[in-house]
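#onboarding

Welcome to the new folks! Below is a worked example of what a typical request in this channel looks like: someone posts a single protein sequence, and someone else replies with the predicted structure as tokens. Don't worry about understanding the tokens yet, we'll cover that in week two.

Example request:
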Amino acid sequence: MTKRAWKKIGLVAGAVVLLAVITLGVHIYWVTRSHVNARNHYMARIDLHQPIDQADSARIKAWLLQQKGVDRVMVSPRWSTAVFTFTPLANVNGIIQDFKASLPYHNAVRYLPTTAQVKRGCPVMH
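Example response:
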């Protein structure tokens, strides 16, 4: 092969590698950036700090499901907690304030993990 052919092969190979690197960079940016839209779901937990029974559980679940943006609710009478998922359309702090005002669970607080707990919980977050 001539020197000119090797030069052409080198240029084509370099262009392919450059295109692959650019494509990889765009892909990494695209999948790691924040995507906030109505299809996203977040989770919140309310600690009630008082004993509840099955009737209370049903009332809490029904009330939370009526709130805008809340789509799933799980209530545990054993642990006196309510866990619900919501979309960004929901104002979760407002929901919890309304929850305390509307229902007889005035000691209820939103559970928020500490920074250390968050880091321990998911190895990707390190």
